[in-house]
Amino acid sequence: MKKITLSHGSGGRLMHELIKGLFIKNLDNPYLNKLGDSALIHAKNKDLAYTTDSFVISPIFFPGGDIGKLSVCGTVNDLCVSGANPRYLSCGMIVEEGFDYSDLERITLSIKQTCKKAGVYVVAGDFKVVEKGAADRIFINTSGIGELYDNARISSSRIRPGDKVIISGTIGDHGAAVLLAREELKFKSRISSDCACLNDLVSSIISSDVKFMRDPTRGGLATTLNEIAQEIGYNIGIDEKTLPVKESVMALCEILGLEPLYMANEGKVVLVVSSKSASRILSRIKKHDLGRGARIIGEIDREKGKKVYLKTKIGSSRILDMLIGEHLPRIC
Amino acid sequence: MKKITLSHGSGGRLMHELIKGLFIKNLDNPYLNKLGDSALIHAKNKDLAYTTDSFVISPIFFPGGDIGKLSVCGTVNDLCVSGANPRYLSCGMIVEEGFDYSDLERITLSIKQTCKKAGVYVVAGDFKVVEKGAADRIFINTSGIGELYDNARISSSRIRPGDKVIISGTIGDHGAAVLLAREELKFKSRISSDCACLNDLVSSIISSDVKFMRDPTRGGLATTLNEIAQEIGYNIGIDEKTLPVKESVMALCEILGLEPLYMANEGKVVLVVSSKSASRILSRIKKHDLGRGARIIGEIDREKGKKVYLKTKIGSSRILDMLIGEHLPRIC
Questions:
Q1: Would you say residue B85 has pLDDT above 90?
Q2: DSSP track, B83-102
Q3: For A217, which residue in chain B has the nearest alpha carbon?
Q4: DSSP codes joined into one string, A152-166
Q5: Which domains does chain B have, with CATH numbers?
Q6: Contacts of B134 in chain A (CB under 8 A)
Q7: How far is C-alpha B84 from the chain's CA centre?
Q8: Confidence band for B183, pLDDT divided at 50, 70 and 90
Q9: CA geometry: angle A113, A177, B35, nearest 5 deg
Q10: What is the complex's ipTM, to 2 decimals?
Q11: Beta bridge partners of B167
């Protein structure tokens, strides 16, 4: 079989063969293998976190990842920034007729490896095929269930003036990598997406001192900070000179007139922590491979408001608005 | 706002306005309204059923339903045929740039009404926009979590020779309605999809006497019976003259050379029950609005095998294979 046909999504024999021969074979786990209408999982009288995300990224393969890896990391990260230990995923694929079987296999293997590394299982799946021209290659939706950590108390209502804002590493890597991977652009530096599952990093620092976390994906760090400011009703001040940005990413942004603050990240977390615990938490984050570039980048203002201010390198201050309009379509 | 633009999926301000102004406003519930990265739900030390399904149906509006209603019913039904009480849904939409806002609103209201009727909540969502031509109007993925009924013992391993097979009503209605709704076909009868949430019907009959259930969607009743036969390793015999098919559906099938047995259903359940409980369960199903047309249609053979036999009206017998190839693309 070289190409996916409409018959592979019809519910009939070819679909069953594809599901058994590709998905069950690779994503092998006792929940999925039963092939029931639903997977059966057990919850131990716990609070669960539940989330969903669709992935429409173009191109589907890019330096540092692919749509399969991204679709696992994106949902794992949404769960862990909610203070939950990600456990079970669902995965629904919509594929365009004529899609290469070898690409589907590569994406499936990527999902397999990413799940293994993150310690999660794909327990429920769905596969649909639409006719040529009705979708652009492949779209993937994942949803996920995680178990809340007993010692997690993640809530924006706990944020107070003076609390510190931490970012776990350089910003804009994913957006820059995808931009470069699009054929039109030639650039001498190789920029890799930061696409990674954050659950191991988050589990190493989770405690009641961590008041809030969010992963700054679409819309970038600036949009995430604006969401936080709007939720808490205090301004947030960010210091530009502390913002970690890779030189190659900054160079690309300068050429194209883009701001790394609005560019997507897929392996970073923003944390709000109490002032007194900030340096201790920062040093714990920096011990993790995915947190080496972490920095304290600002703090919650004493002033009521819903704005984010950027203290620039030349000493001035400007409002950092939420992303308005479209920065870069199909970034995730 | 008349049309959806790429900016509505960018993660920025326009997306936030759309989410609050349309989705939160209409799908209003305490889990969703927190707008966190994940919804927090509580599981009471129970077994949970977890499932996912993507909907790519064309056309998106059809007699008896639309893609919104379908995306709720499809996932609710997958949960309840697993013996679970559906509770929480996630909903991820992928929309083509230029899609009418009024259609998105109509679909959202349909999701709202269907959820209300089924007693479930959309607690997590995602909204993506792709450029014109990269998707055909709108695709929706839902996933769902249900709590297993204490008295449910749904497992194909409990099926024994002599057990009866029940279908809850007429077959092929959904497939026929969608076929007719496609512009090319003009037909004097109006055929409505059977699209409905089955959780109320299922909860009224759930007991240990119900050994297995499945909803015969893509691939139709014939494919579902083949799946069961393959799982249990016994042949299944079906009596054609007992099969409930609406006259209008049969007429359409005869004209087009299609078989209702392979046509999709979106509001029907196939049950396997012990022989002694069959008539009692059948009469309970028939008391429910969605089960008035229920019939015992066959039984599990004493003969080992993995085939489905159809005893035809003229007295002969033929093998009813799983759907091979494509019957009708984008039926759900």
A1: yes
A2: TEEEEEEEEEEEEETT-BHH
A3: B11
A4: ----GGG--TT-EEE
A5: 36-148 (3.30.1330.10), 156-319 (3.90.650.10)
A6: 56, 58, 135-136, 330
A7: 15
A8: low
A9: 75
A10: 0.96
A11: B270, B295
